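User: Could you check the structure of this?
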Amino acid sequence: AATFPPRPKPRPRPATPPVLEARRAATAGRLEDGSFSLWPGEILGIAALQGMGQQQLFLACFGMAPLTGGQILVDGREVTLASPKDAIAANIGISLVPEDRKTEGLFLKLDGRRNVSLPVIDRFTRHGLIDEAAETEAVAKVFRQVEVAQRALYTPAGAFSGGNQQKIAIGKWLLAGSRTLLMFDPTRGVDIGTKHQLYLMMRAFADAGGAVLFHSTELAEIVNLCDRVQVMYGGRTVAELSGEAIEEEAIMRYALGEQRQPGMAA
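Assistant: Sure, the predicted structure tokens are below.
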């Protein structure tokens, strides 16, 4: 099995507002009452069985599922995310690493350089022309950071393994300077060695002051990677666990609807 990085000791919560927060968020899909608060420096797990509203919660935070109720807040201020462009705007800084990288995360026929620079191509454009040297240098630096071979600069993304494709998809958001990474089942179909690299990458991102909202279909990942875990059942947030309370058995009881924490949405 893949090895997990050590979980850092609990730190006092910063006095600042959460970098990303959902309050009783609802969408036209299965999400009825999703709530969480995510602070810089932490990995917050969203645990749920398939189809319990977790995907709509992630999509709502990335401007891909309009809210029919509730609020999304960034730095304590309510925001309207009508599209992914709104989410990745510099003052918001939310990125999504989707579950299906082949159809949602990458353009497989484009080389790695184009894939990574696309969300921030304006940064390398002067008078309508792309400064290719600056673009290449910036993307090469990201590839060193995520440990992808430099040939990815000029090789179609589709030529790489699933694990390397996922690292290219994550690299795109590191270049964009994202503050919050929404990671929806990011290790699906990835080999064990790359899984370990992705775990280290997530923890390093949080340690550097970023924030990660993380869902996985593998409970062991939720238990071993997350500082706190919120459990969803039937489109609602039904429990929050932290520290020693983060255990597979406890998560499953809530995820199956067998119990609900007092004070959570009824």
